[in-house]
Amino acid sequence: MKQRQITQEQTERKQAQAVRFAETVLDDPDLADDLESLTPEEYAERRGFQIVENPRRKEAKPVARPTRQELEEENEQLWDTLESVRDQLDDMLESDGDGEEDQGGDTEDEDS
Q1: Strands 49-51 and 4-6, how do they pair?
Q2: What is the pTM of this model?
Q3: How far is CA 79 from the centre of its chain?
Q4: Which alpha helices (DSSP H) does 25-109 contain, by range?
Q5: Which tens digits make up the pLDDT trace of 47-64?
Q6: How far apart are CA 44 and CA 8, in angstroms?
Q7: Burial class (CB within 10 angstroms; exposed 0-12, middle 13-18, buried 19+) of 27
Q8: Which of 4, 10, 93, 96 has minimal CB crowding within 10 Å?
């Protein structure tokens, strides 16, 4: 299991909160003393934390950006696709005009 990464300051703050919790909520002065006697590193190990300087910096991953050539190729493919769809649409409109002209649901007798 991956350890949660936190800073030294966060570890110290969590340790102090744990001490206060043991004293006030649990009413367990022995546990509070035990927690308080630990170094921040020992407390982090006990809790399964890993102390790091800046946890967010390690998690950042580089963003892959396409090259100019890749963008130009994709652009060309999109234009080809658009042209193909327009041709298909034109063919559909032309073939629709060759058959019955009134397939759109309009009434046949418009002079009424």
Answers
A1: parallel
A2: 0.45
A3: 30
A4: 29-37, 40-47, 55-59, 68-98
A5: 888 888 875 655 556 778
A6: 9
A7: exposed
A8: 93
